[in-house]
């Protein structure tokens, strides 16, 4: 009888310990480990976002695991699932597509892991805080600059970002808030080029074939703007005004050299750092604002 009791006691203790360790592995995992899911690392903007997050994580003593979704929403969900398996205490998500990101957020919610979105929103699930520039304001800034440079009237084209991304929607909304309110500004073409330089070049080539009198282009990011500049130069439209969005190194250099007219400069490194800092606050039980905005600046050269 004593042997039976001893066996049961050991089994009971083992069960309690297993339950204890299982509890530690869920609902947040390792408080010093944060996951970061980035839409694509082929874009310099997101490389800088990653660098800012890594610097802040190192400063705060966190392990930051960064993964690349390669502009694929299904890979984004897979990345989130992998990070949850690794026991991260918080997830920073830069969505590929705002609607598709809902699945990733809900998956993290089911594991009780807090979610922070950065640059692009997720249209669903519970997000603790969203960190981004005011993209609507940025679109308005671009339109106002173009309007001024055109002297109040002209023919304009628009290179849109990835369809479904909140940055695409908001930058376009801000831009059209200004141009659609003025009958002297005529937007003859608005086409997506997926935030990609090569696609920006190709789409612009097609635009100017059918509208050779385009006087200005607003691109929803610098990569597309730089592609547009190349197409315009090849097409003999070097005087066309081109405004990008992000303020990346290549764009800043292009503005300084006179190739690019202007860029709406974001601060991706700051945004990455703010995301990690927010994760730390959430893990510590502190409150964070539902939306955190990073300042934008119109850059027109040195």
UniProtKB/TrEMBL annotation:
<dbReference type="Pfam" id="PF13407">
    <property type="entry name" value="Peripla_BP_4"/>
</dbReference>
<dbReference type="InterPro" id="IPR025997">
    <property type="entry name" value="SBP_2_dom"/>
</dbReference>
<comment type="similarity">
    <text>Belongs to the bacterial solute-binding protein 2 family.</text>
</comment>
<keyword id="KW-0732">Signal</keyword>
<feature type="domain" description="Periplasmic binding protein">
    <location>
        <begin position="34"/>
        <end position="286"/>
    </location>
</feature>
<feature type="signal peptide">
    <location>
        <begin position="1"/>
        <end position="22"/>
    </location>
</feature>
<dbReference type="GO" id="GO:0030246">
    <property type="term" value="F:carbohydrate binding"/>
</dbReference>
<dbReference type="InterPro" id="IPR028082">
    <property type="entry name" value="Peripla_BP_I"/>
</dbReference>
<protein>
    <submittedName>
        <fullName>D-ribose ABC transporter substrate-binding protein</fullName>
    </submittedName>
</protein>
<dbReference type="GO" id="GO:0030313">
    <property type="term" value="C:cell envelope"/>
</dbReference>
